[in-house]
Amino acid sequence: MGWRYLVLTLGAITMVFWLCRFCFFKLFESPKFLVAKGRDDEAVAAIHGVAHRNKKKTWLTTEILNEIGGSAETTEKQNLSSKEIIARSLSKFSASQITPLFSSKRLGITSKFFSGSFDWVIIDSQT
C-alpha cells in the first residue's frame, strides 16, 4: 500500500511544478530556431526578453541581425518520394566510418557486443 502513496505524492509534486512552469516562468523559443524559420523579429524579441530577465541590455536589432547574417533565404518545398529520401540519406553513408571499429580482433568483438546489445534494447522496447 505504501508504494501507491509514493506514486500519488510524486505525481502531485510533478503536477504542481508543471503548473508553476506556466504561471511563474516565461520560456522563450530558441532564437536559433526562430532565425532558421525566418522569424527574425521574434528571435530579436526573445533575445531582448532573456536579457531583460537577466537584468542586462542588448544592442541587437532586426537590422543588425540582417546585416550580420543576411536576410532569410527562401527555398522551395521539395516533393521527394520515400525512395529518393532513403537514397539521399544512404548517399552520406560510407564504410570508411565503420571499418575502424573492426580494425583489430578485440575492437571487432567489443563493437559486435555493443551493437548486439543495442539491437536487443531496441527489440525489447518495441514489444
Automatic annotation (TrEMBL):
| Domain of life the protein comes from | Eukaryota
Q: Does the keyword Signal apply?
A: no
Q: Record's SUPFAM superfamilies?
A: MFS general substrate transporter
Q: Where in the cell is it found?
A: Membrane
Q: Which InterPro entries match?
A: MFS_trans_sf (IPR036259)
Give the stretches traversing the membrane. 6-24
Give the UniProt entry's GO cellular component terms. Answer: membrane
Q: Which key words tag this protein in UniProt? A: Membrane, Transmembrane, Transmembrane helix, Transport
Q: How does it sit in the membrane?
A: Multi-pass membrane protein
Identify this protein by name. Answer: Unnamed protein product
Q: What species was this sequence derived from?
A: Aspergillus oryzae
